[in-house]
Each structure stands twice: as structure tokens, then as C-alpha cells.
Amino acid sequence: MxxxxxxxxxxxxxxxxxxxxxxxxxLTLQLKWVTQAQFAGYYVxxxxxxxxxxxxxxxxxxxxxxxxxxxxxxxGGADVIVDxxxxxxATREKGLPMVNIGQIYGKSGMMLTCxxxxxxxxxxxxxxxxxxxxxxGNEYPFLSWMSKxxxxxxxxxxxxxxxxxxxxDPIFQGQADCVSTMTYNEYGQVLDGGLTPEExxxxxxxxxxxxxxxxxxxVLEEDLADPKMVEKYAKFLKASIKGxxxxxxxxxxxxxxxxxxxDTGAQTEEHQVRMMGEVAKLLNxxxxxxxxxDPAAYQRTVDVLLNSDxxxxxxxEPVGAYSHVVFDKAMxx
Length: 333
What we know:
Belongs to the NMT1/THI5 family. Keywords: Iron, Metal-binding, Pyridoxal phosphate, Signal, Thiamine biosynthesis, Transferase. It is a single chain. This protein has 13 helices and ten strands. By secondary structure, the protein is of the alpha/beta class. The chain folds into two domains: 25-107 and 212-332, D-Maltodextrin-Binding Protein, domain 2 (3-Layer(aba) Sandwich), CATH 3.40.190; 110-208, Periplasmic binding protein-like II (D-Maltodextrin-Binding Protein, domain 2, 3-Layer(aba) Sandwich). Strands 2-1-3-10-4 form a five-stranded mixed β-sheet, with helices on both faces. Helix 2 crosses helix 10 (251-261) and helix 10 (251-261) packs across helix 11 (269-282).
């Protein structure tokens, strides 16, 4: 009887060990902003089982105005975060060793949207005007652009910076001549608010030569010294790339998946479908495609930031701020 009990015990231990071996790796992704089509590829990968196929148990945490992804990463609340390169480089220089392991967006969606009635038709007309700007790390490309143009950002003959909330109200309330918008989000809100394209002048950062890399994936540098973590991140990146490819090919269906995961109920089908269509235009399709950080594009962002007189951005050439080790591993799977 005792032998039988021991056998059962040993069997239970072996069974538990087997379950433990087969258990999926857990990974938490912290988004830069709320649940919306800006992050469709991750939700598609989750919904379509791409993460499951690679034995990953992925949790996606939406962002928001009170959530700083870098702080979440530093505090252990996420393994991977979505962030913009200027913000990530500034954070790294301040002491948090974040590393880009994958670049999803190849183009910037940022622009200034201006009222034609303001008299602004070229950047030379910005002097004396009030421009709405996002902060919390999103201001760096704008400050670099103004520095390039030679404008002070303290008013007077320079530009007056209005600290813009994450909406487009200032352009409707007469508080700003221009507001910051993303091609895939706030610009649509401006149109939905009643203004027409004919009433607006757009300045895309891409066209002005001050575009910087936006949505990329970041982890802590110390994790890349662990082969097991590199493999887990590679699985995540591989599945996420597949999700983004599917989302770009099926924009309406991808938007519907995003809506399923929006617990706030604040998003609408029309807005998310439009957003997904615009986001697809920004995906990294050059070189090795989605997920690969092009060193030339990285250097362009660094140069834009280093050429700025504004603070705080970065003050020296970053070292070790990106790595292809995860991408290369993902491509070998």
C-alpha cells in the first residue's frame, strides 16, 4: 500500500512537471495609449491565436493619460512596451536602459493641422501663432522642428505653445491656430467636428523632414543577456508581425477585433475602420519589413533630436539603444 501511495505521489509529481513544462510563457505588453486600431496587430495576434501557436500567454494592457509605459516597464508591470523612439531615447539617457527590439511603424503619423483662417500657409507663417502640442514625451519632435525653423517657443515673435490635451478642442474653441493630430486619429476627429479638408492646412512631419520613429517595441537591456528571454521576445515579435500583416490585409475585420477588446465602449466602428486604414499606410514595409528597425531611420531620428536646442531631448549619441537580436531570432523560427 505504501509503495502504491509512493507511486501515486511520484506520478503526480511527474504529471505536474509535465504540465509545468508545457505551460505557456507569460508575457505582458503595455500599450502607449488606449485600445484602438493603432495597436490592431497585437489584438489580432491574440484573437487569432498567433501567440497561442507559439506557446505564449500574452496579456495586453491598454494605456491612457495617466499611464507612462516606461515607468510600467521599470516597475515590472510589463515585459514589453510600445513607445516612440524620441521618448525612449530620452528615457534611456535619463538612466532607464530601454532597448528597441522591433519597429512596427516605418513612417510618422504626426502632423500639425491648422485653420486656413489663421493665415498660415507655410511654416514661415508660424511666428506669432499659437500651436497646440502634446507633452509627456510627445513634444520632442515638435520642439526639434521649431528649433530647426529658428522659432523660440516662448511666445512673442516665436510661437506660443499651448499644452494640448489629448483631444482637438483648442481648434474649435479658438484657443489655437493649429493643433497636433495623428493622421490616423485626431485628424478624423477634426473632420467629425465639422471642419472640412478645404478649411485646413496640414503639415506632416514626414514632409517637413523632422519625422521620428513612432510605435516600436521596447524591453529592458538586461533581459537581452538571457537567451530564454530573447527566445520569448522573438516568439512575441514573430506572432505580432503576423498579426500586423493580417490586420493590414483585413482592415475592417481587424477594426472589429479591436472593438471587441475595447472595454470602455468609447470607440466607434467608423472611427476604428478609418484608423486601421491610415495605420496600414505607416507600417514598416521597407527593407526587411514590419518589425525590423532600419538603422538609417533610427539615425534620422537621432539626428533630428540632436539638432534640437530644446530640452529635454538627448544630448549625446545613444549607444546600445536598439538591437536586432530578437528580430533575427524571430526570423529564424
